[in-house]
Amino acid sequence: MNRGESRLIIHGRQSPLIDNLNFDAVLRQRLGRFQGLRDHRPGGHNGDIPALALHIGNAERHDVLDAHGNAHTEGQLPRSVPILYGRLTVQAAVKSARGSWVADRAHALWAARTRFVGLRLDQWLLHAGQPFSVHYLVVDPAGQPTAGSPVRIVLQRRRLNVVETANGTGRFTAWQKTHWVSEGHCDVTSAVAPGSCRMTPGQAGTYRIVATVRDPDGLSEQTTLRAWSVGAGAVVWKTGTHVELVPDKHAYHVGDVARVLVQNPYPGAKALVTVERYGVLWRKVVILTGSAPVLRIPIKRSFFPGAYLSVAIFSPRVAPPNAADLGRPTLALGYVSLPVVGHGSALTVSVVPARTDYKPRQHVNVRVRVRAVHGGPSAHTRLVVAVVDASSMVLQYLWRMVANFLSKTFQLACRYIHTIQQHT
Predict the structure, then answer these.
(1) Would the CA dihedral through 228, 234, 235, 240 be positive or negative?
(2) How many Å separate Cα 22 from the centre of its chain?
(3) What's CA 27's distance to the chain center, in Å?
(4) Averaged pLDDT, 217-244
(5) How far is Cα 367 from Cα 353, in angstroms, rounded to an integer?
(6) Among candidates 338, 310, 305, 262, which has minimal Cα distance to 414?
(7) Percent of the chain with pLDDT over 70
(8) Following DSSP, what letter does each residue of 69-133 receive, concatenated?
(9) Torsion (CA) 384, 388, 390, 392 in degrees, nearest 10
(10) pLDDT above 50 for 416
(11) What is the rounded (10 degree) CA torsion for 68, 18, 358, 387?
């Protein structure tokens, strides 16, 4: 059960005179941020599931505020939803007799399971034929480790079948079908401390580690951890002109060596490797040996605060022309970002307005102070300023869209404004 409460205050006093009152509820999936799974891949995430609108109480009621300006509603939450872990948002909006709306929201944790399992690997790449350890831990919705829950961990390899078929125009179209083949499993029981089990990948390719835990009610929850294996033998990657690049870290420091796995569809082909940002910062021509080669990219000072790695693979003609012409020359391209952090990349920004309250059409004076990581002034810094109406976010659920917009805006500002040169 869930209860929503709304109170309308106009000009500092409570007013029960309204035209109608609306209650809305939205359930959004969130990646579990459990205290006990800081170093593990958390559970409770079933892919990209859109937000669900839930019906609670009466959608619209008239004259429901009491003399104190309070209103209540109750509604039964659904038992079966695809979202296992997330946040429930309840919004109440009231409309006065003058036609103005006032709204507010409240949030609550949503957990459809009482047990969640997390996974962790100690190594970035797996090696075919060599055993590795996968660590696991089971927690409750509060993030506290729990013991006594049965867990099954399965190692699966992706098998991709590609078939070229002729269509009505005589051109050939590639059909791809993916199968996941199990190569091993282990059945364990959770403890308060993290546990581990040993597995061995059979060959190079894409793998996933699937852990399933059952709670005392018999309901199951799964966590999937993606992994890649390197070694001898050919691997069938997804066809097309795009090549997936897998870096070993999320961010780098100047002086590091980035290791990047290339899902190479053309073993033995020549590739142009470049690091770019407003031009080419670094380049190299290499021969990609095998289906899963690993490139080593030195992180230079000129890469700060970030750049993009490009791998252009050129496959020459390998067979005479025919109807399908599968041996024709081909170009495949892959891109991945290389964020560079460390000394000089962290900026402290403080924003202090001259006043706390402003009226429409008044000018707003804001004092912005930017300090570098060592506490000194940050020279040659460009600012991106965005002004957002908070009431619009409350009424229209725009807060997530605005947050994503601001996040991407500031990321672009940090990565592309090359005038920031803080390398101390």
Answers:
(1) positive
(2) 33
(3) 18
(4) 85
(5) 6
(6) 305
(7) 73
(8) SEEEEEEPPPS--S-SEEEEEEEEEEEETTS-EEEEEEEEEEES-S-EEEEEES-SSEETT--EE
(9) -150
(10) no
(11) 110
225, two tokens: 């951890």
pLDDT at 374: 65
Measuring CA to CA, how many Å separate 66 from each of 7, 71, 105, 129, 183? Answer: 10, 7, 20, 71, 64
* Range in 98-107, 198-207, 260-269, 303-312 the model is least confident about: 98-107
Measured in whole angstroms, how far is the alpha carbon of residue 85 from the centre of its chain?
A: 15
3-state secondary structure of 303: helix
Asked if 117 and 221 count as a contact pair (C-beta separation under 8 A), the reply is yes
pLDDT tens track for 58-80: 545 554 566 666 777 776 777 77
- The mean per-residue pLDDT over the stretch 278-295 comes to 92
The share of the chain scoring above pLDDT 90, in percent, equals 29
Locate 239 and state its tokens: 């066809």
Going from the C-alpha of 374 to that of each of 252, 342, 343, 346, 347, the distances in angstroms are 19, 11, 8, 9, 9
Residue 413's beta-bridge partner residues?
A: none
Q: 186: which strand partners?
A: 153
Residue identified by tokens 């090359």 is 418
What is the rounded CA–CA span in Å between residue 275 and residue 262? Answer: 15
Is residue 235 within 8 A of residue 255, CB to CB? The reply is no
Gap between the Cα atoms of 112 and 261, Å rounded? 37
Q: CB of 272 within 8 A of CB of 295? A: no
Class of residue 71 by CB neighbours under 10 A (exposed 0-12, middle 13-18, buried 19+): buried
- Is pLDDT of 201 > 80? yes
Q: For residue range 152-163, what is the model confidence (pLDDT) as tens digits? A: 999 999 988 877
pLDDT per position as a tens digit, 387-402 = 776 655 555 554 555 5
